[in-house]
Amino acid sequence: MKNTGMKRPLDTLGRIVIPIEIRNTTGIEIGDPLEFYMDNEKGFLGIGKYNGISCKLCNSAQDLSYFKSSLLCRQCILEMKGNVGVTLIPTPPVREKPKESRIHRSTLQLLKGLRQLMKEHPKAKQSEYAEWLGVSQGRISQLKKLL
What we know:
Layout: H1 20-26, E1 34-39, E2 44-49, E3 64-67, E4 70-73, H2 74-81, H3 107-120, H4 126-133, H5 137-146
Helix pairs in contact: 3-5, 4-5
């Protein structure tokens, strides 16, 4: 259901004007019979063009059957069973796997690992040390201060 943002007041006789934009979109002409729908629990009132006794999908009046409180013709039922004219809804894109949670290691273990990496790669950047140890650059900075 779409909120149009249009508002119309009831007049003193309880009438309401349906905006021309909505009438054009729904194919309602002046003098067309309208049908009212109501949901007491939600306080919802809906209006639709009355098609009489006809198929809800194609407005045919022949070979009608009820399906879930709606009238459908035999041809529409057969088309639905055979998936005729059905458009598949595209599947949503697969999300990337979340980053693996970092393993909690004691400060002593991290200090040993950092000391080893600094000996092996003395010109490496702080970001590289962080990536190799699986910690943040801020944590590397803290560990360097402790060395």
